[in-house]
Design a protein that fits this description.
Helix content is about 50%, strand content about 15%. The chain is α+β, with helices and mostly antiparallel strands. It folds into three domains: about 120 residues, Acyl-CoA dehydrogenase/oxidase, N-terminal domain (Butyryl-Coa Dehydrogenase, subunit A, domain 1), CATH 1.10.540.10; about 100 residues, Butyryl-CoA Dehydrogenase, subunit A, domain 2 (Beta Barrel), CATH 2.40.110.10; about 140 residues, Butyryl-CoA Dehydrogenase, subunit A, domain 3 (Up-down Bundle), CATH 1.20.140.10. The strands form three sheets. The protein has a four-stranded mixed β-sheet with strand order 1-4-5-8. A four-stranded antiparallel β-sheet has the order 2-3-7-6, with helices on one face. Its cofactor is FAD. Belongs to the acyl-CoA dehydrogenase family.
């Protein structure tokens, strides 16, 4: 009888051995994005956050395009054609730096590019996707309105036929990338139902004033979209999408990235808490040697790595074509909620230092308050799961 192989040493950074689930290409993608974020974001993001700005966003977008992070899982048109798991790993590493950076990538790839790639004409794909994949063109996605967030079916933005053209009027709110975008995918009510339109942002009547006075996602461009008699040619409409199924499928793709990204923010806070607990001394010893602190760290580690394992499982299902929207709701509901709890617990370990921008904890905690509600609030995902579990629709 052969002796069982000796298990590898326990790795505090990977207590479940989740790296064993990744192949060399997965690890290479993760390491590339981690290195880029460590060099280009982490040294500056606290200052960006404090000032409430994201300077050089167009340069950052081109760099992200250069490492293949924009429209990662899409095929052709200059896109990387990466796996869903690789895209998820990239989202985790980007959000470990800052949620605003992951939002930039998510809106570009999972919303604007995904909508054009899935529902657009060949001419639309050829016109927009290569430049967007390279980061030369930034995109945004206009669905949410000032009075209609969780109920997009009630949107007021409308598009009317005028001869061979479309004329769009309305407002969209809380739009990431809006003020720096070269193209906007805008959803509007028409006589034939809700349709998507590819809107060049230099169109007459289009404007995107930036939203200020945010206390979350401060290192991110957030805007209102204003459409006043924006005239578009007939071929501006996305031919493959009619009704809410189109924009909702885009949101499912973006929510998948959040399942991973939230764990990146949680990991950054957990690592800060561990480092602090090992170096901060009270009562003559590091606070990491006290039972209550160790209990907090153990609970944080359990939820963090369970969340990463859940994200990995959903990624493999997406790669196999078996991922359902209800499962994405499961992941977003759990992982964002647990990430916020990890950040808040990390703040207690750091004490007063936890509110300082010298550490990442409070920045991630406030960012996650936005992540908690965008791409579907907690209540919406609870109701999605409730309907799936009972067969009863409780939305109305």
């Amino acid at each position: 009888m052969s002796m069982p192989a000796k298990p590898p040493p326990f790795d505090p950074a990977d207590p479940l051995g989740l790296d064993d689930l990744l192949d060399p290409e997965d690890l290479a993608v993760r390491d590339t994005v981690r290195a880029w974020a460590g060099e280009r974001v982490l040294p500056h993001v606290a200052d960006w956050y404090e000032k409430g700005e994201l300077p050089g966003v167009r340069e950052l977008a081109r760099e992200l395009g250069g490492i293949g992070a924009l429209g990662m899982p899409l095929d052709g048109y200059g896109c990387a054609g990466a796996s869903a798991v690789q895209y998820g790993l990239a989202c985790l590493e980007l959000e470990a730096a800052d949620s605003g950076i992951r939002s930039l990538v998510s809106v570009q790839g999972s919303l604007a590019m995904y909508a054009i790639h899935r529902f657009g004409s060949e001419e639309q794909k050829l016109r927009w996707l290569p430049g967007m994949a390279a980061g030369e063109i930034i995109g945004c996605f206009g669905l949410t309105e000032p009075d209609h967030g969780s109920d997009p079916a009630a949107m007021r933005t409308h598009a009317k036929r005028d001869g061979g053209d479309w004329v769009l009027n309305g407002r969209k709110m809380w739009i990431t990338n809006g003020s720096v975008a070269g193209v906007a995918v805008v959803w509007a009510r028409t006589d034939d139902g809700i349709r998507g339109f590819v809107v060049p942002t230099d169109s007459a009547g289009f404007s995107a004033p930036e939203i200020k006075h945010k206390w979350s996602l401060r290192a991110s461009v957030t805007s209102e979209l204003v459409l006043d008699d924006v005239r578009l040619p007939a071929d501006a409409v996305l031919p493959g999408a009619t009704g809410l199924r189109g924009p909702l499928s885009c949101l499912t793709h973006a929510r998948y990235g959040i399942v991973w990204g939230a764990m990146g923010a949680a990991r950054a806070c957990f690592e800060a808490a561990v480092d602090y607990a090992k170096s901060r001394e009270q009562f003559g010893r590091p606070i990491g040697g006290f039972q209550l602190t160790q209990a907090k760290l153990a609970d944080m580690a359990v939820e963090l790595h369970k969340g990463i394992l859940l994200a990995h499982h959903l990624g493999r299902r997406m790669d196999a074509g078996r991922l359902r929207p209800e499962q994405v709701s499961f992941g977003k509901l759990n992982n964002v909620r647990e990430a916020i709890d990890i950040c808040r617990t990390a703040r207690t370990i750091l004490g007063a230092n936890g509110i300082s921008l010298e550490y990442p904890v409070m920045r991630h905690a406030t960012n996650l308050e936005s992540v908690l509600t965008y791409e579907g609030t907690v209540e919406m995902h609870q109701l999605v799961l409730g309907k799936a579990l009972t067969g009863i629709d409780a939305f109305r």
